[in-house]
Structure formats: structure tokens, C-alpha cells
Amino acid sequence: MHAAVVSSFDTPPRYAEIETPIPVGEHEVLVTVIAAGLHPRVRSQADGSHYTSTDELPLVPGIDGVGRTADGRLVYFILPDTTIGAMAEQTVVDLRRSIVLEEGVDPVALAAAMNPAMSSWIALRQRIDFQRGQSVLVLGATGSAGQMAVQIAKHLGAGRVIAASRNAARLEALPALGADVTISLDGAEADVAERLASAAADVDVVLDYLWGTPTVSAMTSIVSNRTDPGRPLAWIEIGSVAGPDAVIPSAALRAARLQIVGSGQGSVSARDIRSELPALAKEISSGAYAVTVRAVPLADVEQAWNEAPSGDERIVITP
Questions:
Q1: At the topology level of CATH, where does 116-262 sit?
Q2: CA distance linking residue 262 with residue 239, whole number of Å
Q3: At residue 79, does pLDDT exceed 80?
Q4: 229-252 mean pLDDT
């Protein structure tokens, strides 16, 4: 069969022929892949920079997708850490990490949206006790996952959604997706701090896709300007596009009722993640969320990989 194959962490995967994988576990089946998303998580898997990465090569990238089992069922699946990923004509799926989909759903749209939507959906439903009416700040709101986070927070009942990003042009589109307020993170640090203090000081939840220096600045500004420091603030670290490390001042943890939690692979069990998939897949299939998708044939994976990632578009590889 053919697959996207990573032979070096310094080069994009190439379209190549490999042996068809063989299921070995009790719950494993061979699935014919229909669509697999080229997510940022997949790029970091392929260049060896993700926190779950190992040095094992070659590998087939791809962490999730839509496929069909031998008995004809259409399924959405999430793969464990494996060298045989979803960007292949066939892959091995553990049925305990999959859900059966209704016929007629758009597999490309699901493959594009499930992963970016899952980050905020699971963060709000599994990592904290999110209540309808609470306010949510999305840091890094103009990436594809951030845009989904704005929509999902609103859909799950947020009373106020604040979207923050350095990309002014993309910020302008977010009110149509559910943002009540937008904040530019571009400019002098003092100016950005003032904007955050004015619009987000009393926020209840932060969905943080940035981390690094922007998180330190935002956290300091928000914590030091809260009207009621005893009001709970849940800060959920989801991504780290601005840097893997953040030097959090100790005063931030003492001066306010601040809870910092992470949401990602490992912090939520596979069972709990799977429990959320049917409802999320149903919402995406209903057209509840806006997502821009471009399907690319598996044979053109190297060309697609070399294109600069766009926050407005999800690439889906179709074997």
C-alpha cells in the first residue's frame, strides 16, 4: 500500500510504498482510510518536536481520521502513539478509540474539524467544571483551533467570549463566529496589558493556545486587575505556539484564586476522550461550526506539507 513516510525529522514525508500493517491486538482492525487531517499536532509528530515524540523512524504521520472497516462501518478514529499513522491507504485502529458514524456525513469535514474542535471541547467539558454564563478568554484565537474554541465556548453556553490574537485581520472575522470582544495582542507590552486589563480582568476561564511570554504578560495583567481576587479563574493550557516555557510569577498564584491546568494527551484519559466524540461529531456534522477545508490527495502530501500553514484553512489528506 502507499503512505506518507517520514524518513528524517528534517524533511517532509514522501509518498511511498510500504507493507500493509497487520492488526495484532484483540480490539484492533484494519481500516481503509478515507480522510486524515494535517493538524499542527501532526506536523510536530513528523518533525519530532511533540512532547510524545520518540526517535523511531521511519513513521507514517497522522493521529486521527475517518475510515471504513472491512464490514462496511464508517468510523472516526484516534490513534495511539504509533509509527503507523493515519496518512496511509490503510491503518490499524483500536475500536475502543473509535466511534461509528452515520452514513452520509462528510468525512473530509470531520477529519478537518474533530481535532481542532476537540482541544477546547474537552478542555471545557473534562478539565474544569464549566458553567453556562461564564466568560471565556481565548488566547491565540485566530488559529484554526482558536477559531473553533470561540465557536465552541459560545455553543456550550459562555456568557461572554473574548478573543485575543496578534493577527488583526483575522480578529475582525471572529465576531461573526461568536466573539463578543476582540483584543489585539500586537504592540507595546504596556498597551497590550492595558487592553487585557480593560476587557478581560474578570474573566472566568482562559483557553490558552499560546503559552510562553504572551501568557506571562496576559496572566500578570489579568490577575493584578481582577475586581474580586477571590473569584475563581481557571487557566487551561492547551497549546504552546509562542513557546514551550512560561515563567509564571509566584505572586500570580498567591494574589488571586488562580488554577492552572493542562488539557491534552495524557491529562484526559482515552476513555474520557472517547466519551466526548459522539456529541462533538454530531455537532460538526450538523454544520454548527464554520471550518474551511481543502482536500489534498495522498500522492501530493509532500507538496502540501511544504505549504505554510494557514489559520483559516485545514488541509485533509485523502488516500
A1: Quinone Oxidoreductase; Chain A, domain 1 (3.90.180)
A2: 9
A3: yes
A4: 93
Do 116-262 and 2-104+289-318 have the same topology in CATH? Answer: yes
How far, in Å, CA of 162 to CA of 153, rounded?
10
Residue 160: strand, helix, or coil: strand
Fold held by 2-104+289-318: Quinone Oxidoreductase; Chain A, domain 1 (3.90.180)
For residue range 123-177, what is the model confidence (pLDDT) as tens digits? 999 999 999 999 999 999 998 899 999 999 999 999 999 999 999 899 999 999 9
Per-domain residue ranges of the chain: 2-104+289-318, 116-262
The structure's pTM equals 0.89
Q: Is 154 helix (H, G, I), strand (E, B) or coil?
A: helix
| Count of beta carbons in the 10 Å neighbourhood of residue 205 | 25
| Amino acid 308: pLDDT | 66
The residue length of the chain stands at 319
Q: Which residue in this structure is represented by grid cell 481576587?
A: 229
**Residue labelled with grid coordinates 523512524:** 57
User: Coil, strand, or helix at residue 133?
Assistant: coil
